[in-house]
Each structure stands twice: as C-alpha cells, then as structure tokens.
Amino acid sequence: MTLAAKALKDAGWVRNYYAYGGIGEGVLADIAVIGGGIVGASCALFLQRDGHKVTLIDPAEPGTKTSYGNACSISASAVLPTATPGIIKQVPAMLMDPAGPLNIRWRYLPRLAPFLLTLLRNTAPDRVEAHSVAIAALIRGVLPAYATLLKEVGAESLVQHVGALKVYKSDASFAGSQYERDMMTRRGFSFDILNADEVRQLEPGLAPIFKHALYAPDSATVKNPGRLVGLFADTLVANGGAILAEEALGFDIVDNRVTGVRTTSGVIAVDKIVLAAGPWSRGLAARLGAKLRLEAERGYHVMLPMPDTPIRRFINLVDDKFVLVPHEDGLRLTSGIEYAKLDAPPDYRRIRNMVKLAADSVPNLDQTEQSIWSGNRPSLPDSVPVIDRSPRYANAFLAFGHSHLGLTMGPVTGRIIADLVAGRDPKLDLSPYRAAGR
To answer: 0.90 exceeded by the pTM?
Structure first.
C-alpha cells in the first residue's frame, strides 16, 4: 500500500499526523489544496517546495478520477481552443452519428444553454485568437514545470518524449487542418508534415491508410497518468504533507478571510486555500466570489491489449475522431465529448462503437475490452483555465477549468499558484486567466 493510499484509507492517521489533536483544534495546514487530480497535486508539491505545510483534500484517492483516465498526452503545442470558427456546423452530424464523439443529454440542455451560447460567441475569430494566445503562454511553461516535478518524485521514466501525431486518411481531411497549422505557426510552435511513407515508418502499427500526418515533436506521452499523480501524492506525504479523504463542502470566513474548510466531518482551520477540484469546483468557486460557466465535459476510454506491433505515441485519428495512446497496461482508446449532469450514469455505447473503427486502422487489433471508464473534464467556454486569486478573499486561490489540457497544464499551473501565494512574479501576464468577467 502506498503512503497516499494509507492516508486515504486511514483518515485518523491523517488527522493525527500533526500534533494538533484533530480537525478544528488549531491549524492543520497553513495551506489546504482542494482536489487530488494532476492540478491539485501539482499545486501541493510546488507549495511544499516553498516550505508550506500542505494538506490535500479529496474524497477519492489522488489520481483516481479525471486524471486517471485521460489521453496520457503532454500536449506541448496544443494551442487551438475548443470553440473555433465553423465548429457549430459540425455539431448536428456529430450528434446524429452513433459512433461520433459528441453527445448531449437533452434533459440537461436547459442548464447547459448558457455555456453553449457563450461557446458559440467564442467562435468569433478575434476571440479564438485571444484564447489561443492565452493557452500558448501557459503551454510554453509546461515542459520546464514537468521537469521540476518529475525529478522531485523520481518519475522521469513515466514520461516518454516521443512527440504526438495527428493522422489523416484523405487530402480533404488534411486540408481541414490548415487553420490549426496556421495558428501553431503564429504562436511559434514547430511541427512536421509527414507523407504516407513517413507515417508508416514512424508508426508501423497503423494500417497503411493514412496519406498525411501532423507531427508535434515537443509533445510527450505519460505511460500511466493515474500512477504519476499517485507518486506526486506519495511525495507530498513523505515530505511532511497530509492527505485528507473527505469532501470539501464550504468555508468559514472571518474578517474577509477564509479561516477554515468545512468537510464532511468537521472544519479544517487554514491560513490559505487553493481550489483545484476540476469539474467539482463550480459551487465552491461561487462561494469564493467566482461564478463561472464551468461544465463537466465527460470523456470515455476503453483499454485494449497492445497489438504485436505496438502503438508508440499519442495518435489522434482525425477522420474517425478518437485517440490511440500507449499505456503501461495496454492500448488506450479515448474519445468523447458528452454534456450531462456531473453524477449522470455513463453511456458507453459510443466509445464501444469506436473500437470497431479502430480495427480498421490497426491491423489484427484484439478488440477484447480489458476495462472501460468515463470521467469529467472541467471545461470553460473559452478553453482558458482560471488561475487566479479569489475576487473576494485574498487568501484563497483558484486553479481549475483546464478542459482537455489538464494533464498538460497541471504542473505549470502549480508553479504559477506557488508564485501567487509567495508574491513572486510568475513571469506571465495572468489577466487572461482571471475569474472576473468570464
């Protein structure tokens, strides 16, 4: 059993870790981080490096929710927001396709409508450009922040610096990537355009049906994101931090400061807090003065056996709208944008249909379903995360809304939050990531 797992399964051990006698009897931590995913764990480690006593609060074991099931990619050149010109025209066809990537639970539509209307407004070219600039500014700090934390936890071998591929079956589908390629060029990120023969050489496990590819050399693949976050949590505990397996419900406020986090079993007295609870951040953020159109955007994956000729890196099969990525437990097929209530039961029909499509792209693919999963991304209609001090309370900090780039941006977000807490210059204009006006 890891240190993190022990802490989560033995809450009494956590409470007694410090000599304060239990919850509510003194300061358990000078900083509480709410959220045990890649963003929260990264914030906790960077804060601990600065000398803070940190408690991580999450009812689930770190790395077992959204961070467990993602597409394993550190996308070090992904600068395209979700809302782009013309995307609305693609929506009806995607919704009608039973193997398509988009699904909306129609009973949820009244709640979702403000988010969708804002998303639609964000397809205006000037807004897309501004949001891309903001995303790119964070992306530039991704690899250095990762290098710091990977060295800290001794997990360099979990990350493979092998680049990422987007593959296209036809001239027409490749031509559709021109907008993204132009945007990458404007942001200063390099890429290579590959022909069919070069695709086969780079990924011999793919069927020879792809005429073109876009290769992003700076991207990397995490062999097991859930295990990586678990190592972050273990390091936090080993270095004197604590993990509390409880749900954060609200806050105690005294003299315009957050003085405590209310959990399912009591109040944790704190000096500062960081809210990094992913899609579960919305209600807590509102209590901190940040009312945002944060939605849970559900994604899915299926784990399959790795083919005899293995897939080597993250591959986005653009025509069929799914991703294949190597994982230390096999081949992960991931796809899906589904809008539904946060606690709605999963619908695995679409992701299972995509396994059949994958068999056309990977010769002799063993379609045996080893496991299946769904999870919730924290999405904002502009694709730009919130990294900010609370608009209402100076000792509360916000770090959520990373959409499809949570695994990519987790460590750089943690580094920036530590800078904000310390009063250091993060060497970045933080105005695009503010909560106000979103």
So the answer is: yes
Q: Which two structure tokens, joined as six digits, stand for 433? A: 């990531």
Contacts of 110 by beta carbon, 8 Å cutoff, 6+ apart: none
**314 vs 219: CA distance, rounded Å:** 9
3-class SS of residue 329? coil
Contacts of 142 (CB under 8 A, 6+ apart): 74, 76, 408, 409, 411, 412
H/E element holding 9? helix 3-9
Query: Which domains can be identified in the chain, with CATH numbers?
Result: 3-67+226-293+383-433 (3.50.50.60), 72-223+296-379 (3.30.9.10)
How high is the pLDDT of residue 336?
80
The string of pLDDT tens digits covering residues 5-33 is 444 444 333 333 332 223 333 344 599 99
With both helix axes pointing from N to C terminus, report the angle between 225-238 and 142-153 in degrees, rounded to the nearest 10: 60
How far is it, in rounded angstroms, from Cα 140 to Cα 143? Answer: 7
Rounded to whole angstroms, how far apart are CA atoms 28 and 244? 10
- According to DSSP, the residues that pair with 261 across neighbouring strands are 251, 268
Neighbour-count burial for 74-104, b at 16+ CB within 10 Å, e otherwise: bbbbbbbbbbbeebeeeeeeeeeeebbbbbe
What Cα–Cα distance (Å) separates residue 92 from each residue in 13, 97, 100, 102, 295? Answer: 52, 9, 11, 9, 20
The whole-angstrom separation of Cα 262 and Cα 241 is: 19
- pLDDT tops 80 at residue 211: yes
How many angstroms separate the CA atoms of 37 and 4, rounded? 13
Q: What are the two backbone dihedrals, phi and then psi, of residue 209, each rounded to the nearest 5 degrees?
A: -120, 5
Q: Letter for the amino acid at 71?
A: A
For residue range 261-314, what is the model confidence (pLDDT) as tens digits? 999 989 999 999 999 999 999 999 999 999 999 999 999 999 999 999 999 999
Find out whether 47 and 34 touch, Cβ atoms under 8 Å.
Answer: no
SS3 108: helix
Nearest Cα to Cα of residue 338 among 103, 151, 142: 103
C-beta of residue 376 within 8 angstroms of C-beta of residue 297? yes
CA distances from 78 to 27, 139, 164, 212, 218 (A): 41, 8, 10, 19, 10
